[in-house]
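Narrative of accomplishments. A recurring question from our advisory board has been how the design workflow behaves on a single, concrete structure rather than in aggregate. To address it, we present the structure tokens for one chain from the evaluation set, followed by the sequence designed for it. No filtering or post-editing was applied between the two.
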């Protein structure tokens, strides 16, 4: 099935200005977040900045990734501002080769998670607005200096989250007929479509101009596998002169067990940085949810008394190190060592096996993020309505949208819990199936035993996840140990 062939949705996606339209809409929402965050009431339940950012955006992001793919990156307003800036200052540098990995983005991902917990960003409208502004400024500065989609591919924490999560999406961009690509001599899908005319009396043989850019993330469609690093921008679709690119359906997660070398990414089994991002995606989901439940306060208080400190910074740093470094090292490293022992030393070093199987954790991580963000979205789905009504009262002096209906919230937490558990179990089953597929690929003579250690890891993480979801939710912001 090719979504680009659908009558209405496909026609809109194939429209040349579709992405710009979505970007303008999201830019408008970003402007509302910034303006109300800076100048509106500084309460988390009365300001659009935290509600739209931490409730609706995150929840809709994960649901769209689950249903369709990386559409939020496709409509990213940061890229719209960047493109406008490049009209006045085209980039003149290329991103250094030694930095063309995900490690900086991994560090920024951890920094965003740490800052969110430390400063209780969900409760700070003005800080949320400043964070949005910082994203715009960072994307603009980086991409005015460096060509291509440097910020998206190597730096953006949101983009890296979307790249990993989109491996679980049911859609991907791929070529329709490989024979058409083999006969193509222009490779417009990656180089872009150019138009030129002879220039007489000039040193250059032709004066050319770009009429449609190709893939800025260096994904050559005939060699592209899956959604990793794909922003769904559809530039390749508009650039292809043969109409040979489809937005087709596929089995979610299948690309994570695909051994082929892929354009712009290489072999996943050799990418320690992407494997580290996958591990962070899974364990970060647990940590982000755990930081919102009541037991974390008791743990922080116990650590504070043990170390004799009153500041939350060192306590939170210890929790992050334990959750994102020590626990993955023990579980993933231990499972890799057991798999190597069971397989009689086959499959390479312990590190190589750990990288290979790290991608099996992505379905579980996706289930955990969906359960967590889905909880906030479903329980606070209608909170934006009374806030918007109140904004109209403040701006116009009268209830133009009606009197604020502050009683509107969303589903009750108890009714959301079964949905959360369902997503966790689906993610766990996906991880088990993916680990078995990887074992079938690497140990075809007997895949069951090499999979066993990873089944133990998955069951352990699932048990922890269900325990976290069963705890009472407590919003941070009352002050550490207060």
């Amino acid at each position: 099935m090719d979504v680009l062939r659908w009558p209405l949705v496909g026609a809109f996606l194939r429209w040349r200005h579709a992405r710009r339209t979505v970007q303008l809409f999201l830019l408008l929402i970003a402007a509302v977040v910034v303006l109300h965050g800076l100048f509106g009431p500084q309460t988390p339940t009365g300001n659009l900045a935290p509600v739209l950012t931490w409730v609706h955006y995150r929840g809709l992001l994960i649901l769209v990734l689950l249903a369709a793919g990386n559409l939020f990156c496709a409509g990213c307003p940061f890229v719209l501002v960047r493109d406008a800036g490049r009209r006045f200052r085209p980039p003149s540098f290329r991103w250094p080769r030694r930095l063309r990995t995900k490690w900086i983005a991994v560090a920024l991902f951890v920094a965003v998670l740490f800052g969110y917990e430390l400063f209780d960003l969900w409760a700070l409208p003005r800080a949320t607005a400043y964070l949005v502004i910082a994203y715009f400024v960072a994307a603009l500065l980086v991409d005015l200096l460096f060509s291509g989609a440097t910020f998206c591919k190597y730096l953006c924490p949101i983009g890296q989250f979307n790249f990993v999560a989109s491996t679980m999406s049911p859609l991907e961009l791929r070529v329709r007929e490989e024979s058409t690509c083999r006969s193509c001599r222009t490779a417009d899908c990656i180089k872009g479509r150019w138009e030129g005319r002879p220039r007489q009396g000039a040193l250059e043989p032709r004066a050319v101009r770009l009429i449609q850019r190709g893939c800025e993330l260096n994904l050559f469609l005939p060699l592209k596998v899956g959604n990793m690093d794909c922003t769904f921008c559809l530039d390749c679709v508009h650039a292809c002169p043969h109409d040979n690119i489809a937005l087709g359906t596929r089995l979610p997660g299948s690309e994570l067990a695909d051994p082929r070398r892929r354009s712009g990414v290489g072999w996943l089994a050799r990418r320690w940085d992407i494997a580290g991002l996958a591990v962070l995606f899974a364990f970060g989901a647990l940590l982000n949810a755990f930081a919102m439940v009541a037991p974390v306060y008791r743990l922080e208080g116990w650590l504070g008394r043990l170390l004799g400190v009153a500041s939350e910074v060192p306590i939170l740093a210890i929790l992050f190190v334990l959750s994102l470094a020590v626990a993955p090292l023990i579980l993933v490293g231990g499972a890799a060592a057991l798999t190597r022992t069971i397989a009689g030393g086959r499959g390479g070093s312990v590190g190589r096996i750990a990288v290979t199987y790290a991608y099996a954790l992505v379905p579980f991580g996706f289930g955990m993020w969906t359960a967590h963000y889905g909880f906030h979205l479903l329980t606070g789905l209608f909170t934006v309505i009374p806030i918007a009504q109140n904004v109209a009262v403040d701006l116009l002096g009268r209830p133009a949208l009606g009197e604020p209906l502050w009683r509107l919230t969303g589903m009750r937490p108890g009714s959301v819990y079964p949905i959360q558990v369902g997503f966790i179990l689906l993610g766990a089953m996906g991880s088990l199936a993916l680990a078995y597929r990887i074992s079938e690929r690497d140990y075809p003579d007997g895949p069951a035993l090499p999979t066993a250690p990873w089944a133990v890891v998955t069951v352990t993480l699932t048990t922890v996840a269900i325990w976290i979801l069963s705890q009472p939710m407590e919003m941070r912001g009352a002050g550490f140990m207060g």
